[in-house]
Amino acid sequence: MFRRRRSTPAVSVVVPAYDVAVYLPACLDSLLGQTLPDLEVVVVDDGSPDASGAIADEYAARDPRVRVLHVENGGLGAARNVGIREARGEYLGFCDADDLMTPRALELLVGRARESDAPLVTGNVVRLEGERRARMRWMDRLHADPGAIVIDDLPELLGDVFAWNKLFRRDFWDDAGLSWPERIRYEDQPTTTDAYLRAGRIGIVSEVVYLWRVRDDGSSITQQRGTVADLTDRWTTKRMALDAVEAYDAAGVTEVFRDRVLPGDMGTYFVNIPDCSDEWWDLLVSGVRELWGPERSLARTTLPPAQRLIGWLVEQDRREDAALVSGYARSLGGPLPRITLADGSVRVDVPALDPATVDPEAMLLRAHEA
């Protein structure tokens, strides 16, 4: 039995569904089993070719909290926007149909939003690898201190770009003119960046609220990073986010964003260098040069040592050497070997790469790394 639903639920969770029939029931069960029952679940059947739409309809027939919208395929961003237009909740949330929310997720997020009067609240996430739940240290760190902040206090939080571990107060979403970019991958980053910068107060929940399923069937967007289309979208969304940060005009926030947040996923692209096409390589070089350029350089960011070296080699358009380091690092499955120099400093070592031809900063380890 469910209590009679108010015309304005506490939360509306938008669930885009496309070719996810195998995962959708578990996702919807995780939402309908929330300890906060005052919600609506808006499933957007994005022209799915499988049984996702029919499964959603079955859930709607059993539970009045579920609403289903059947639309022509428009992609993830468009499906989310369709769901938002139909959502009636005081707060907006999002859930990908192959993922799960923890049982108290909405209770915790709404509680933090209300007690801190924050129009945006974000919680911790773990990766779901089969049945294993894998912690992400960087997310643990960003969500370590529960309470409320402004982005200037913790600009690294801009790296938590996920749409689905957050709640947005609906009036804030509308007043800020937020929406998800359409027909592009990585649409989360521009919108979440804009939201952080506009929110003023941001609520932090340290508990895990979301289980992010890692799929190994090749269908995940994050498994397609060796394509030109993927890299093109990545550069586009990075530019959009950077434009918003620079318009915010806070030097400390911009510096952290450029050095800690913006380069954070470059390692997942660098692994593709040994097998990449000429077009993909040229696009990688042009994007790296545009976003970091010679005056900043990926060698001076907080990337791990091997990635800083590869990034510098990409900036110099040294494809063979970048492929050499990338392939060698992948074969090791761990840190690059190290050499202690006469002055006591330590640098990485890559056989067949002449260190005399490399900017020392691109190879030296920092004090905390040595």
TrEMBL record:
Sorted alphabetically, the keyword list is:
Transferase
User: Keyword Phosphoprotein on this protein?
Assistant: no
For this protein, the record's InterPro entries field holds: Glyco_trans_2-like, Nucleotide-diphossugar_trans
Q: Gene3D superfamilies attached here?
A: Spore Coat Polysaccharide Biosynthesis Protein SpsA, Chain A
According to the record, the segments passing through the membrane are none
Question: Is the Transferase keyword given for this protein?
Answer: yes
Looking at the record, the residues that make up the Glycosyltransferase 2-like domain are 12-171
In the record, what terms sit under GO molecular function? hexosyltransferase activity
Pfam short name (any one): Glycos_transf_2
Matching entries from PANTHER family are given as:
GLYCOSYLTRANSFERASE, UDP-GLCNAC:BETAGAL BETA-1,3-N-ACETYLGLUCOSAMINYLTRANSFERASE-LIKE PROTEIN 1
Q: What is this protein called?
A: Glycosyltransferase
Q: Which organism is it from?
A: Nocardioides antri
